[in-house]
């Protein structure tokens, strides 16, 4: 039985993670750095547009690495190493 990590990346998980990251970013801008709310929302929205595809790209990269490692291990097992 595999873990959730073993499944392929999905856009919905990238969106959820991006929303979480942009929300934290917005909170930091408003609360910690005392920036105006309107400007902070615009900047957080821009960050969200970066976080989503970047998060999916990183998930895809890590998934492909795990799949390649599993494939190499299966090949070693078949050769008896």
Molecular structure report:
The chain has helices spanning 11-32, 37-79. The relative contact order is 0.13. The protein is rod-shaped. By secondary structure, it is mostly helical. The chain has one domain (10-79). α1 (11-32) packs antiparallel against α2. The chain is built from two helices and no strands. The model has no long low-confidence stretch (mean pLDDT 94).
Overview features:
single chain, 81 residues, mainly alpha, 80% helix, rod-shaped
How much of the polypeptide forms β-strand, as a percent range?
A: under 5%
Category by helix and strand content: mainly alpha
* Through-space gap between termini: 24 Å
Number of helices: 2
Q: List segments where confidence is low: pLDDT < 50 over at least 5 consecutive residues.
A: none
Number of domains: 1
Largest sheet: none
Give the tally of β-strands: 0
In summary, what is this structure?
This protein is an all-alpha fold and 81 residues long.
Write the layout of secondary structure elements.
Elements: H1 11-32, H2 37-79
Helix pairs in contact: 1-2
């Amino acid at each position: 039985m595999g873990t959730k990590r073993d499944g392929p990346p999905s856009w919905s998980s990238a969106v959820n993670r991006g929303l979480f990251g942009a929300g934290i970013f917005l909170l930091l801008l408003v609360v910690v750095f005392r920036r105006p709310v309107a400007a902070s929302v615009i900047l957080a929205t821009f960050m969200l547009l970066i976080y989503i595809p970047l998060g999916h790209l990183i998930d895809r990269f890590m998934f492909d690495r795990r799949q390649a490692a599993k494939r190499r291990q299966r090949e070693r097992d078949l050769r008896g190493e």
